[in-house]
Design goal:
Largest sheet: 5 strands, parallel
Strand order of the largest sheet: 3-2-1-6-7
Order of helices and strands: EHEEEEHEHEHHEEHEEHEHHEHHHE
Shape: globular
Mean pLDDT: 95
Number of helices: 12
Radius of gyration: 19 Å
Oligomer: single chain
Strand content: 15-25%
Distance between the termini: 47 Å
Structural class: alpha/beta
Helix content: 25-40%
Low-confidence stretches: none
Number of strands: 14
Length: about 280
């Protein structure tokens, strides 16, 4: 099967299912191992900051299945793929991945498995993720029953203006034992203001600059100007501002559970010390 992924999360899922050799096209933001023939890169950054599709290059890959995002968040959606194949006799199947919760992410992994004849591998991946979630849930419930108070926090892309990730991120925070103050469950990413952050004054502030991997995210944050009133924020005063690997929080793939484990370690380090993947977060300076 010839597979095209126009969404980094879908690429992550396909790699987890062992389908890298069938992957013939990806976005410029996807990460794939440098082994064998590399898939064609079919997108670039558009003028508005979202992904721009190279439609002729997509058609040239002759895919059987194209996996896309919702299209309302800068990702490539179904409409652009349909337009690319408008004059082609044989069109590929198109699968949209647009989960709004952690459960939705797990369902997306199963859906990709079903569409790529990798159901057993997908089931194994999902079962492994559910086992990790259950182990984490048991600790969170035990700590809460023992009197641990869920801290108030905000997850934010500190762009200009700052952006609330939304979608499954509030669900991740809740499963990790915290309370997200600004973003709404399942909502698309939305801009906010630093005034809104100051109004809720979180105990923890989790930064995901542009969804970047941790080293690049740290450099981006260190180079960014601090907003007015930064030093007065409770999270800043108490040294509880963290930069986190964006892929673990913002990609709807297997690393979504990594994101919950990272948040759990930041929220309740005495109970979850060492749970987060190595080098997945850093204290913000």
């Amino acid at each position: 099967m010839r597979l095209v992924s126009l969404l980094p999360a879908a690429t992550e899922i396909l790699l987890a299912l062992g389908l890298e050799e069938e992957l013939v096209g990806i976005t410029h933001r996807c990460e794939v191992p440098a082994t064998g023939e590399e898939p064609a890169v079919l997108t670039r950054t558009g003028s508005g900051g979202g992904d721009a599709l190279d439609a002729p290059a997509l058609v040239e890959t002759d895919p059987d299945l194209v996996i896309v995002g919702p299209g309302d968040d800068g990702s490539i959606g179904t409409r652009l793929v349909d337009a690319a194949f408008a004059d082609v006799t044989v069109r590929p199947s198109v699968l949209t991945i647009a989960p709004a919760s952690v459960e939705g992410v797990l369902n997306a992994i199963a859906a990709v498995g079903a569409m790529t004849e990798a159901e057993d591998d997908a089931l194994a991946v999902v079962e492994g993720l559910r086992e990790r979630l259950k182990a984490l849930e048991d600790i969170v419930i035990g700590r809460r029953d023992g009197g641990f108070r869920p801290p108030r926090l905000v997850v934010l892309d500190p762009a200009d203006p700052p952006v609330m990730p939304g979608r499954w991120v509030p669900d991740q925070v809740r499963l990790a034992g915290g309370w997200e103050l600004l973003a709404q469950d399942g909502a698309r990413p939305e801009p906010t203001t630093w005034d809104s952050v100051r109004d809720v004054d979180p105990e923890l502030l989790v930064l995901v600059p542009d969804g970047l991997p941790l080293p690049e995210a740290v450099r981006a944050w260190e180079a960014a100007p601090r907003p007015e009133g930064w030093a007065e924020l409770r999270a800043v005063r108490e040294d509880r501002v963290f930069v986190v690997d964006g892929g673990a929080l913002l990609l709807a793939g297997p690393r979504v559970v990594d994101g919950i484990e990272i948040l759990a370690e930041l929220i309740d380090p005495s109970a979850f010390d060492g749970m987060a993947p190595t080098a997945s977060w850093a204290r913000a300076r």
